[in-house]
Amino acid sequence: MDIGMAEPVITVRRISKTFGTLRAVDRVDFDVPAAACFGFLGPNGAGKTTMMKMLYGMCRPDADDEGTMDVFGCDPRREELAIKHLAGVVPQENNLDDELNVVGNLMVFARFYNLPRAVARERIAELLAFLELADKAKAKIKELSGGMKRRLVVARAMLNAPRLLILDEPTTGLDPQVRHVIWDKLRQLKRRGTTILLTTHYMDEAFQICDGLLIMDRGRAVLGGRPRDLLAEHIEPYVLEVFDGQEATGIDACFGEALRVEASPEITRVYGHDLEQLRRVAAALHSDHYYVREANLEDLFLRTTGRSLNAVQ
User: Fold this and answer.
1) Within-domain flag for 203
2) Bridge partners of 212?
3) DSSP collapsed to 3 states, 163-198
4) Total domain count for the chain?
5) Are residues 280 and 172 in the same domain?
6) Tell me, what's the pLDDT at 212?
7) What are phi and psi of 291, to 5 degrees?
8) For residue 167, what are the β-bridge partners?
9) Could you say which of 232, 267, 285 is where a domain stops?
């Protein structure tokens, strides 16, 4: 799926991956332009992480797969080492060495890239300043907060000045302030020319920093494009949320086909194109247990992949 911007530096066509009887990735297509942030969304088990791992050679497509992958001119199936040299990877887990301090963790990885010691120290100082960790240079890992550890893992992935930064759920479990700091740093990296791939479960994160998205479900690419375009094309612009099941009874019957209603025992969502109409519906409820808002990426995600847990297993 093309997000309609510049010439792509990553191109994937009809790629598949099977584990036993599970089709984890099923004939997926997408393009990523340079200096863009491209996000993978999907329920747990949708195939997001598997797709990312195939891009940097940690997981190989099916042996009989006829699809193609091109990452900055390299095929991950045959040029894994070349991709490792041009990419930095932030895994889901903060796999730092607790026995070393902050600088020690980074120096170990600098050796993997054959950085001379003086160059490594200069690069580490720049990265710690960039990620607001300079005052923690000598701190032990156990002394760091969760947000500091996450920023340190990002710094580690950037030691080789990567052209491609790959992040697997980079802000999961972090408080809002830390998440916003990381978002700001990713925006700065894009402006410097870094191409970014990420998986996330945070819809606001995807909307804030991603130039293009691919929504996956059960291994397949369901929707792809720019966040705002996806919202404009695939879901109504406004929604009324009613938090009292009794109050919501009969809304669809009263207002007909002009509105789309999604109901559960605890909450009813009424989607429409006319904001004033939704406000009239809300006023007719004679209740304060409602909220009228603009539809967002989470609404689209749930409409696409299902609201119930059974729908995504």
Assistant:
1) yes
2) 38
3) CEEEEECCCCCCCHHHHHHHHHHHHHHHHCCCEEEE
4) 2
5) no
6) 97
7) -150, 125
8) 90, 198
9) 232
